[in-house]
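Structure request: OmpA-like domain-containing protein, Hymenobacter terrestris.
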Amino acid sequence: MNNPTSNKRQQNDFFWPSYVDLMTSLFVVMLVLFVYSFKLFKDREGELKQANGELKAKAEELEQITKIRRSLERLEGKYFKYDPSNERHELLVPVQFKAGRDEIQDAYKPALLQAGRTLRTVLKSIKTDQPVRYLVIVEGMAARYPAGDPRNAREEQTTYQLSYRRALNLLNFWKQKGLDFGQDRNIELIIGGSGFFGTGRYQGRREGDNKRFLIQVIPKVGRMQ
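Returned structure:
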């Protein structure tokens, strides 16, 4: 005959080891999940700290750029006018080139020299909390011939070179007078020519006024290489 007490003892002997194994397995699973969740949390925390640091740096950079742009307002006056729609400065010296020529006439040189000195003085006087580098773009332009003149189509491509040479002559003139922007560590100067094209051109009767120079100053805040 089976002994009920003995059978119950055997069942208990089987149950408790199985129960302990189950609880141990559950504990291990929970421990693994906890470690994994903690790692995800720390990784996320690190990402958030990095993102916050980047946002703070961008905010500081934006603040510096805003201050610089306000300081650049000192350019406005006799020699420069700010064009808000295109975010650039127009050189107000009414330079007039002979058709198809790139030589700067002597009559305009004194005013151009003063304009160059004003530009350099303003850039060197701006104080910032972080290092700043200025990308200065000097752009030459050209005026179209009257509507219907075949030279507009024939010279469309060559005017890019013409307007570039005009800008180059301005930079060479400044350099001859001691205004060598290339010697300024925080100024990178680029010259260009837009020919018959470009944004913000005068239209209609003022087409001839497109024989001019545009100055664009782009501040770059941060560590300088």
